[in-house]
Amino acid sequence: MMTRNEKIIIIVLLLIIMVFGMLIIQHTVFNSPSDNSQIRQTLANNSDDPGTVEVIRNIGNPNGERIAYVVGVHPLEHLTHETLVKLLPNRTDLKNCYDIYIINVTEGVGHYGDGLDNYENPGRQNGQNLAYKYVYPEILNGNYSMAIDVHSNIGAYPYKTFVFSPAKDGLGVDYAREVADNCPNIDDYAPDTTTSGPFLTEPLNNNGVPAFYFEEYSFAPQDVKDSHMMELIDAIDNLDI
Q1: CA distance 127 to 123
Q2: Closest by CA position to 196, among listed 41, 70, 66
Q3: How many CB atoms lie within 10 A of CB 157?
Q4: pTM for this structure?
Q5: For 76, which DSSP code?
Q6: Counting Cβ atoms within 10 Å, is residue 126 exposed (0-12), middle (13-18) or buried (19+)?
Q7: 170 phi-psi bin (left φ>0, alpha ψ -120 to 50, beta other)
Q8: What is the pLDDT of residues 147-202, one digit of tens each?
Q9: Structural element, H or E, at residue 70
C-alpha cells in the first residue's frame, strides 16, 4: 500500500505531464503551416471555355498589402506554376496577403517537341484568353497593389531566370528591377516581345495595377526551381509598396 507522500508525488508527476502535454499541443496549433483563412474558389467552370480558373485567397497576412500571382497562362510551363502553388501557401512568415489565380487549360495543351513551335501551340492562346476573360477583371477590380504573372522558357533568351514588365516605365518596371536587385539568381531582362502581355500584364499596368513577369528555365532541376521561387517570394514580400 502506498504511503500518503507517495500518492502526493504521483499526483504532482501527473500534473506536470498534463501541463507539458498542453504546452506541446498549443505549440503545434499555433505554429502549424496551415492557415484556416485560406480559401480555394472556382471562378470559371464553363463547358464553352477551353479550361477552368481557380483562386487560392488570403495567403499570408490578411492585413497586409494584397498582391496577386497568376499561373497557367501558358500550360506547357506548368512545372514552374506548380512550384509556386506548392511553396507559397505554406509560408507562415509573410507580411503581405497573396492570392494565386490558377488557369487550368484543358484544350490544345500539347507538349514540348510535338512539332509545333511554342508560340503556335493552341493551348497557349487558350490560356491567354482565359486570363483576359476571367483573371484580368478580377485583379483590376480587386484592390491589388501588384500582380506577378509566372512563366517559364526553354532557354532561348540570353538569361534563363529573370523578371520584367512589358510597360515602358512605371511601378511595374520599378518593382521588377528591385526584385532582381535583391535576388542573386534572378536577372532583370526584357525580351523584345511577349504574346501574353496584351491579355494581362499590359492592360493591368495601363489601368493602375503594377504588373510584371517572372520567367524560370523550364528544364531547371526541381530543387533549383524551388530555390529561385523562394527568392522571388521573399523579394516581393520585402518590397516597399
Answers
A1: 6
A2: 70
A3: 15
A4: 0.83
A5: G
A6: buried
A7: left
A8: 999 999 999 999 999 999 999 899 999 999 999 999 999 999 999 989 999 999 99
A9: strand 66-71
